[in-house]
Each structure stands twice: as structure tokens, then as C-alpha cells.
Amino acid sequence: MSSKEHDPMDRSPLTVPSRTTSPENHAIPHGLPDGSRDVLADWAFFFDIDGTLLDIAETPEAVCVPDGLIHDLVHLSRKLDGALALVTGRSISFVDTLFPGALFPVAGLHGAERRDAAGRMSEIELTSDFLRAKDELKKRALSWPDILVEDKNAAIAVHYRQAPQYQHDMQMLMREIAAMAGPRWTLQNGKMVTELRPATSDKGRAVKAFMADAPFSARRPLVFGDDVTDEAMFKAANAAGGLSVKIGSPSETSAATLYMESPAILRSWISEIAQ
Ligand SMILES: O=P(O)(O)OC[C@H]1O[C@H](O[C@H]2O[C@H](CO)[C@@H](O)[C@H](O)[C@H]2O)[C@H](O)[C@@H](O)[C@@H]1O
Ligand SMILES: [Mg+2]
């Protein structure tokens, strides 16, 4: 079956195509492009980072970029004539520390800040209410042991991975903090995290913004994500005639049309098509 014939209702992880040999490559869904340049010329790739390119770690700072991943992404980007972007809840400045020297196009803070393929940056203006709300959160979070606050400048996250018993308390606290910040910020739940992020954008709008310009335009979006925040880009890719791949188990509530079991399988596939 070619990529254009993929049945979007088929949500099962499928068997390995004959081209794959690695034992990790046992669940590459049918319909994804292979590594030939003429096939890749039709596609623009968008990758979420945490839980998609990278395995989930105990804390935000503890993530590990495996050997070879940057090299493979840079090679793949070249084969795509630059039509590869990262779309993440992280800040762009943190992404650049994870992938030093690569300077990929990036949408950070769930789409609120963006560096396009020409290197132009769009950022968010902070309000005094938001700054006060961040200070209040940092003070109040100290009352709970093992709760981590991640200040991302125009967004702030409270992590309860090491104290999951406080999930409800943290969600209640973040509602109060969101009310203090005002309507320009909104709540975003994720994996063991609740965040306050700019309300002006989301990952779907970020993908659409990339797709409006070269080298992304005139291609089909192929998006990879693992979490609630990625649903907006799954829908954007589907609506634009592209494909959406969720890393993890098939889910009735996801708009993703394809599934891959783990970041390791995704990385292995990237390595293969980047050659
Ligand atoms: O959109 P993403 O690239 O997936 O980023 C989403 C959030 O990821 C990070 O938190 C998550 O990953 C951490 C490291 O594996 C993990 O410890 C945490 O529990 C997860 O929620 C990041 O810290 C957030 O800023 C991102 O928004
Ligand atoms: Mg993710």
C-alpha cells in the first residue's frame, strides 16, 4: 500500500515492511514514506520531543538525547531540503541546549514561540499579572514535597511525577494561578504535569504557520506526538491531507491515524530513512 492509499481508520500498529531489519523495527506502521529522496520530497516532518523523540525521564532536566539522534535528524532534514521542525512544550532556548548546533526550525511552548526556517523568531510579551502569578506559584509549590516547578519564561509548569498523590492539589492550585494570570494564558495538562501556557497558539496553529512558508509549503505534513497537546497538530495534519502518528498505545480519543509503540522505534525508523 502506498502512502496515498493509507486507510486513516486503521489504527493498529502494523507489521514490519520488508525493508526493515532491526529487531526494534517490528512495528513501523504502513503508509509512512521511505527514505528515497523523490518520496521524501512530498513530505514535511514535525516532531514532538518529550515522549516522542526522547524517552520520558524522572525530571525535565534528566532527559537524554541518545547518541546519533542529532546526526540522524540533521541528515533527514537535509534530505527534506529543510522541511523538518520540532514542535514542543519546551522553550526554544532549552531545545537548542538539547540539540546543540542543529538550530532546527522550532515551535516552542506548545506553539506560542516560533523560529521559522529562515531563523526569524516570534515571541510572547509577558504581562505583569502573569509574572505575579508565576511568583505566587513558586511560593505556594514549596508547601508540597517533591513537586517541581519549571519556569519556561512565557510558560510555567508544575510537575508531580515524583509525587503523583498531589495531582489533584496541583490541578486546583494551577486553576487559581491561571485566574491570576488572566485570559492570555491557559492551562495545559500533560504527562504528570500541569502547565500555564500562552493561550494565543497551539501546536496545530504552529504546524499551519510552518506549512505556509518554504520549505514546508507544497508538501504533506507528517506529525509525530505522544500527548494531549499533540492532538491539535494531529488534527491539523489530517485536515491538510497529511498523516499523524501517535507514539504509544492506540486510543479511541486520539485524532492520530497511525501508532508507533515507543520513542526507540521512532528513532530507529528515523535512522533508517536518514541514510
Ligand atoms: O511537547 P513535548 O516536547 O512533549 O514537551 C511536553 C513537556 O515535556 C516535559 O515534561 C515531560 O517530560 C519530562 C522529561 O521526560 C518528564 O519528567 C515530565 O513528567 C513530562 O511531563 C517538559 O518538562 C515540559 O516543559 C514540556 O511541556
Ligand atoms: Mg510529548
Notes on the structure:
- By secondary structure, the protein is of the alpha/beta class.
- The chain folds into 2 domains: 31-123 and 201-274, Rossmann fold; 128-198, Trehalose-6-phosphate phosphatase related protein, domain 2 (Alpha-Beta Plaits, 2-Layer Sandwich), CATH 3.30.70.
- 29% of the residues lie in helices and 19% in strands.
- It contains 8 helices and 12 strands.
- It has helices at residues 37-40, 69-79, 92-98, 128-141, 167-181, 203-211, 231-239, 263-274, and strands spanning 43-47, 84-87, 106-108, 113-115, 121-122, 148-151, 156-159, 185-190, 193-198, 220-225, 243-247, 258-260.
- β10, α7 and β11 form a beta-alpha-beta unit.
- α4 (128-141) runs antiparallel to α5.
- The longest helix has 15 residues, at 167-181.
- It is globular.
- Mean pLDDT is 91; it is low at 1-25.
- Magnesium ion is lined by residues 48, 50-52, 225-227.
